[in-house]
Each structure stands twice: as C-alpha cells, then as structure tokens.
Amino acid sequence: MTFRSCLFLAVRMLFGRRDGQPGRIRSAVVAVGLSLVPLVVVLQVSDGMIQGITSRFIETGTYHLQAIGSADATAAELEAVRSRLAEFPGVTATISERQGIGLLYSDAGRTGATVRAVTPGVWQTDDRFRDYMEVEAGAFDLGEPASVPGAGEEQREGSGSPIVLGAQIALRLDVQPGDPVRLLTVRPGPGGAFLPRISRFTVTGIVSTGYQDLDRLWVYIPLERGLQVLPATTARQIIGIKIDDPYGIRNPLFSPRGDPAATQLVTSIRNSLGPSWRLFSWYDLERSRYMSFLTTKNLLVFIMSLIVCVAAVNISSSMVMLIIEKRPEIAILKSTGATPGAIALVFVLCGFFAGVVGAIVGTAIGLTASINVNEILLGIEWTVNAMIGLGARLVSPFGIGVTAELSLFHSEHYLERLPVSVSLPELVGAAALAIGLSSLAAWIPARRAASIRPIDVLRKH
C-alpha cells in the first residue's frame, strides 16, 4: 500500500458512515476540540494580564531602568546627570525622582504612602506615563497651588505645595482637588533620634493606573519640595530612564535571551554612570513579582494540558472501538497484500486527522472566547445575578433575605479590564500539542490493528 492509499483509507474510516451511522471517533474529535478551549484561553488571557500589569508597573512606577544614587544630590546635580543620560540614542525620557515613605492624613482619615517627588513636567514629557495614568479628578499638576481646578480663592490663600494622589489613597482620605492634606515624615535628629516633620499640601489631582495595587501606593509632589521634606537618610535618589524597547531587556517573561540593541544600550548607560550610581532594570527591581506571574501561568498551562491529555485518551478508546468495527476490512486488506506497517499507519493517520480537526475547532473557539472574555464574564455575572435577584423576590415573602452578588472578576485585585494578547506561536504550540497527543494515543490501537490475523477474522465471518 502506498502512503496515498493509507491517507485515503484513514479519511474514509474517520469521516465515513457505516449503516447510516456517523463514525464512532467523531465524539473523540469533539472532546479534543473542547479540551483545547481552556488551554487557549489561559494562554492568551494570562499573557495579556502579565503584559498589562507589567506595562503599568514599568511605565508609571519602576521605569524601564533606574539609576539609583548612593549619596545625596542637589536638584542641579540631578539635572546634570539626567541631561547626560537623555542624550543616549534609544533613550526616550529621563525623570529625576526622590522617593520616600510618609503618613498622609486629612480630617476624614489617614494612610501610609510612598511619596514620589518628581519633576513637575513629567506629565508633559513622558507620553507612556500619560498612556497608563488616567486623571479621575482635577489635573496632574505639580505647579503652583493656584492652578487647582475648581478651587476657590479662600482655598488657594495660604495653601501648601501641590500633591497628586492615587485613587485609592484619595478614597481613604475622602478628599477632592482643592482640599488640603498633611504629610508626616521623619528626619534624623541629634543622638540618633528621629524628629517628625509635618508638611502641608493641596490636592491638585486624583489619578488611577487601572490597577488598584498601584493606586493605593503612590502620591506625587514636586521634586524641589521632595528634596526638602524627604531626607536622604530615609529616601532613595533615582533617575528613571525610558527606552525604545523595554521588553528587549533580558527577562524570562518576554525576552529570555535579550535583544542585542537593548543590551548594548543598558551596558553603555551603566558604563557612563559614576561610582555613586547603580543601574537596575525593571525586571531586577520587581523580580519576585514577575516570577510569581510566570510560575502561576506555567501551573495553569500544565493543568489545562492535562485536560488535553485526558481527551487524547478518549481518542485511544475510540480507536479501539473503530478497529473492532473494521476488523473484516482490515483482514481483507491484509489478505490482498497490505503490510502490518501500512495498517498501523492508517490508524495513526486517523488519530492525526482527529487531532487536526479537534485542534482547528478548539483553537477557533478558544481564540473567540479569549477576544471576548470581558463580555463573556460580564454576561455570566449579569445572568447569575439576575437569577439571584429573581430568587430573592420569590423568597422575600417568607422573610428570607438574599443580598449576595456574584463577582467573577473584581477590579480590586486585578486590572479593571482583562487585556488579551494574541500570540501566534502559543496558538500553534497548543494545536501541535493536541495533534501530537492524538497521534500518540492512536499508536497503541494501531499496533493492535496491525497484529490482526486475517485467517482468524475470515473464519468467523
């Protein structure tokens, strides 16, 4: 038998009918396709979430690179270093920053926060910062207090320096643009003691990154004011650096080997800094966080792959039933000269084509579900909550109260909206896994088919 003949027989056995009934293996094909759907969804959605969270961290928080100074520096010294770094080809933005810890309080509440003293023009000069930072109220304005949107003259007179709050911090303090807040910091005193310092600020804006773990951390004040209220002994002096390709910096999430151009740029910047500065990449600064993302994704992919393996076992059992059904045809083929290897190849090709069809169907459904995952989750929540509401109305005459609501995706712990990153190599890999497992599952039954003796079959028929 030629390969072409084996191919024809495999397709006929897989998709043909017998006695008006569809082929037995079609249910296994459906199982393979359905098992592939959760794997595809996990791959695409997890990549989107990791990239969405990572982008917010590096564009609004850690920068792409951070040059951290070991000694105190004046505003002029910081500006000199920043200007020199900005001249490197491939560097898109540089921001001077002093970062420390303080206690913010208002008449309505108090909370700890990371105080970020940055140059007032960061909003205008850094496009990527603006892309991931949404202004919910007021404006990202670190200029004069008189520019507070909506503030009356009585609020502006005697007001402190401007401050921009994260959305969660503003919620805890119950403040709006134009309201005063106070910042408690500490400075070293004589004898090793720490002396408190209270500084007054006026809220000019409330911002959100769309990721609440970040919105509850940060407040922004002008750099000059930060140099005054954040002493060098309790704060970090950094210069944030943005480059053309931040994901080209070597990291296991997006570029395990690193892009040569990005690697060369990082090396050049590191060599240009003096001994009082150290350079860190965005991955170095949050290594444990990103590794936890990668570990979680790999664990989910492993679990979803096990589901595909179980579906492939279903292919094997269906192939056994198909071989039992086709024993007379197998005996006739072997009687006419078909070799055991050719018979085995026919049934391996059956498993291969079953995997191909299942992979196409499963990948298409999974990709569609991934792209529309936000709408699907909202639809499920709405349907279930509507049923809960209906049930609550039915049992309310009996004095039973039902107030719980289903929340499949809470923005307090994740992004406000699930981003989706479609990766062609991962889709091909998932499809190849399904096809490979289906072919492998068909191999053992195929060997059984090859061992059938024609004389035994023909004697019974």
Question: Key features?
Answer:
alpha+beta, two-stranded antiparallel ribbon, 12 strands
Q: What would you say this structure looks like, in words?
A:
The chain is α+β, with helices and mostly antiparallel strands and 461 residues long. It folds into two domains: 3-50 and 294-460, no CATH class; 63-284, no CATH class. 53% of the residues lie in helices and 19% in strands. It is built from 17 helices and twelve strands. It has helices spanning 3-15, 26-60, 75-86, 122-125, 127-132, 153-156, 167-173, 212-215, 223-229, 260-272, 282-285, 287-325, 327-335, 340-371, 373-395, 424-450, 454-460; strands at residues 17-18, 21-22, 65-69, 91-105, 110-118, 134-138, 161-166, 180-188, 194-208, 218-222, 236-243, 277-281. The strands form two sheets. The protein has a six-stranded mixed β-barrel with strand order 4-5-10-7-9-8. A two-stranded antiparallel ribbon has the order 1-2. A hairpin with a 4-residue loop joins strand 4 and strand 5 (110-118). The longest helix has 39 residues, at 287-325. The protein is elongated. 39% of the residues are buried.
